[in-house]
Amino acid sequence: MRDHLGRPVVAVTGMGLVTPLGFGVAESWAGLLAGRSGIRRITRFPTDHLKTRIAGQVTLPGEEALASPERVERMAAMAAAEAVGQAGTGGRFPGPLFLGMPPVEVEWPQRLALARAGATYPAMAEAATGQRALFETFLFGGIGERLAQRFGTRGVPVSVTTACATGASAIQLGLEAIQRGEAAAALCIGAEGSVAPEPLVRFSLLSALSTRNDEPERASRPFEKTREGFVLSEGAAALVLESLESAQARGAEVLGLVLGAGERADSFHRTRSNPDGGAIIGAMRSAILDAGLAPADISYVNAHGTGTPENDKMETLGMRAVFGEAPPPISSNKSMIGHTLSAAGAIEAVASLLSIRDGMLPPTINHELPDPAIALDLVPNVARAAKVERVLSNSFGFGGQNVCLVLGAAP
């Protein structure tokens, strides 16, 4: 029940998913194994004037009236309810909440409404005075507080945002809290609801998004030669972590293990990675070392794999540096569900555990023209049966925020 460093072994006893492929683990996982794309033309708001008009949209009841933070909260609650229900913890949750979510700010419709009182910031601030609902909607920590109350988690909920590594960061926080003996269990969530005009415009201005609007299902093309950018997406994932000792003592089904985590920062650029790949390579090596493993012990890598020319090149560099001339298979869930940003690390951790459970590697779809500079086994287009014991799940964020997780089979 202790790992190579004498820390409690950390088990996963519950998982929940919300993705553009469906609601719940079963539906989303079936879609991934089928190589089905969840990318569609955006229907939530007009896109005629935008360069990118496609996304991985999760349709919620009454979504047209919802601000992004409200979508984040709803999807996080759905995923958490599934995970907690599967874990069977019952009653008040026996540990803290670690929530990974996007940064929150007042959005265009609300700013325009405030601007009717005057276009200057002082006038808008005055108009916002006393609007408690507006404040609570766009308060960063408010979502975590409400989720903590809903699920009865213990202590003060922790909300974190580390760009595209956010979901993995939430899991890392839960893992380390249990390893240190500060908690017997943790509810870890990554959630994203930013398919909205403003994020779409911002990422478009960075030239980060695919503009393959006429073929949405073929737009996300990680590691493929004609890749041109990622597809903005949304969703949520939740994992219930607890010490293996606690899980076995209460007779819970152990779905897998979180064996280790590695984190490295890269202050090179706001969006680009340092060309030497030091932080990406360091995060991967650190995670494997933290798990007490060698690179040869990794069966499969769940890629960050966004489909941008820069990211895929750097991840390939990292794979070669860490694994040498015989890297394990690697594939990208983002080829099917797009880039779920703050949710991605958590969604991909769940997919990694399911790969272990079922002995199946989800494919990298839309792999039509191989890139000769990327000599990796990408599990192209069709899922593959394989013996999977340990998975490295990569999450590399803008601003050099990199987190990697190692997931393992249940004992």
UniProtKB/TrEMBL annotation:
Pathway membership: Lipid metabolism; fatty acid biosynthesis
Which Pfam families would you find in this protein's record? ketoacyl-synt, Ketoacyl-synt_C
Q: Where are the transmembrane segments?
A: none
Q: Does this entry carry the keyword Nucleotide-binding?
A: no
> Keyword Transferase, does the record have it?
yes
| InterPro entries given in the database record | Beta-ketoacyl_synthase, Ketoacyl_synth_AS, Ketoacyl_synth_C, Ketoacyl_synth_N, PKS_Beta-ketoAc_synthase_dom, Thiolase-like
Which residue range or ranges hold the Ketosynthase family 3 (KS3) domain? 7-409
Q: Which SMART domains match?
A: PKS_KS
> Which keywords, in A-to-Z order, does the entry hold?
Transferase
The record's comment on protein family reads: Belongs to the thiolase-like superfamily. Beta-ketoacyl-ACP synthases family.
State what protein this is by name: Beta-ketoacyl-ACP synthase
